[in-house]
Amino acid sequence: MIRFERLTKRYGSLTAVADLSLEVRGGEVYALLGPNGAGKTTALRCLASLLAPTSGTTWVDGVCTQDDPVGVRRRLAFLAASMGLYERLSATELVQYFGQLHGLEGDRLDERVEAMIELFGIESFRDRLCGRLSTGQRQRVSLARALVHDPPALILDEPTIGLDVLSGQTIYEFIDRERARGKAVLFSTHQMDEVDLLADRVGVLRAGRLVAEGSPQSVVADTGEASLARAFLSLVQQPEQGVGS
Question: CA dist 42 to 9, 25, 229, 241, Å?
Answer without folding.
Answer: 8, 21, 23, 20
